[in-house]
Amino acid sequence: MTKVFITGGAGFIGSHLADAYVKQGQEVVALDDLSTGREENVAQLSATGKFRLVKGSVLDPQKVDELMRACDICYHLAAAVGVYTIVEKPLNSLLTNLKGTEVVLEAAARYGKKILIASTSEVYGKSNKFPFSETDDAVMGATDKSRWSYAYAKAVDEFMALAYYQEKKLPVIVVRFFNTVGPRQTGRYGMVIPNFVRQALLNEDITIFGDGHQSRCFIYVGDVVEAVMRLMDTPAAVGQVINVGNNSLEISIEDLARQILKLTGSRSQLTYIPYAQAYPLGFEDMERRIPDLFKIKALINFQPKVQLTEILQMVIEHKKTKLGDLYKY
Ligand code: UDP
Q1: Does residue 7 sit in helix, strand or coil?
Q2: Beta partners for 75?
Q3: Could you report the per-residue pLDDT of 55-80, keeping only the tens digit for each?
Q4: Residue 299 located in a structural domain
Q5: Is residue 202 part of a domain?
Q6: Residue 57 C-alpha to ligand 1 middle, in angstroms?
Q7: Ligand 1 pocket member 253 (CB < 6 A)
Q8: Can you give the residue ranges of the NAD-dependent epimerase/dehydratase domain (predicted)?
């Protein structure tokens, strides 16, 4: 049996990862400060006897040390995420994303534990060389636009992880997640699909930021979970930075809104909101973001399976349950 330590284990991706390991019969300990993570994401696991949620922060070195010592492998997914979180609380986000990763890597190195670090497609910044492959240059925005603080912090996390690999021989894998979506993702911090689905189910205006021509490639959270679990078991992935995404699901935000309207049968109207109004000052959006999947294919022959319509249907069903009485047919 493997003992798996997941920081951010009550979060969106972390809770799905915990589900998958528990289903395999492994033991999971999640550390989560419940800032964006939620107990209800892991409530289904409490009766299994294979799962424990520790409420605490990755900024607590003692707690991290204790949990790291007891585990076999670690996934570091705890982070301040979501555009609103980053833009509204840049200091707190920076501390969590820089210092938190430092604490976790230090502990992993102390006990020589294999660790997978979650990074993000944001580190490519506003590069316009498509698709984004791992060794491409990053094109970051200026520091007066706090959105980029997330990308810079995650880039430093990557440097730190690779330095631990190089100098301390720590077995570390870095993954860059591209727009991961599915049930349990909340729209509270800006993510587009849960927001649009909620608005559609409540027949409220669908808030398209900018002209809606910007596009994203979405990947189902279950596909991401499969990818990281297989990478963790792949010796050749150690010391590597690897994109995890789905390059076949590119869609403009406007088309995404229309598809959600169709699938929900909603009476909502599309409304276009200028960026200056949608976000506090100092925000820049990316026009496109497409992953190059050559590396992950070569490593684990990865092929995302779930199509966008299926993902949206799952999110719609989940949201209906969450909205309860608020949602009327
Ligand atoms: N977006 C939007 N309306 C919303 C939330 C987001 O039009 O209510 C847009 C956002 O400006 C971006 C895209 O949808 O162009 C994806 O946003 P998200 O925050 O989900 O992910 P990211 O910006 O990190 O790709």
Answers
A1: strand
A2: 6, 116
A3: 999 999 999 999 999 999 999 999 99
A4: yes
A5: no
A6: 27
A7: yes
A8: 4-245
Distance CA 192, CA 102 (A): 30
Other CB atoms closer than 10 Å to residue 105's CB: what's the count? 25
Find the 87 Cα to ligand 1 centroid distance in Å: 13
Q: Is 216 in the pocket of ligand 1 (CB under 6 A)?
A: yes
Where residue 87 sits, what CATH number does that domain have? 3.40.50.720
Whole-number pLDDT of residue 278: 86
Ligand 1 centroid from CA 184, angstroms: 17
Residue 274 falls within a domain, yes or no? no
Give residue-wise pLDDT tens across range 167-211: 999 999 999 999 999 999 998 888 999 999 999 999 999 999 999
Which residue lies with its CA nearest to atom 6 of ligand 1?
A: 192
Per-residue DSSP letter, 139 = B
Catalytic site residues?
A: 150
Q: How many angstroms separate the alpha carbon of residue 191 from the centre of ligand 1? A: 6
Residue 209 near ligand 1, beta carbon < 6 Å = yes
Q: Which residues contact 2 (CB under 8 A, 6 or more apart)?
A: 21, 26, 27, 72, 73
Q: Which two tokens stand for residue 234?
A: 């792949």
- Chain position carrying tokens 């520790």: 54
Structural domain total, the chain? 1
CA-based radius of gyration for the chain: 19
Q: Is 81 in the pocket of ligand 1 (CB under 6 A)?
A: no
Tokens matching residue 52: 């424990």
pLDDT tens-place string over residues 213-252: 999 999 999 999 999 999 999 999 999 999 999 999 899 9
Tell me which DSSP letter residue 45 carries.
Answer: G
How would DSSP label each residue in 173-239? EEEEE-SEE-TT--STT--HHHHHHHHHHTTPPEEEETTS--EEE-EEHHHHHHHHHHHHT-GGGTT
Does ligand 1 lie within 6 Å of residue 48's CB atom? no
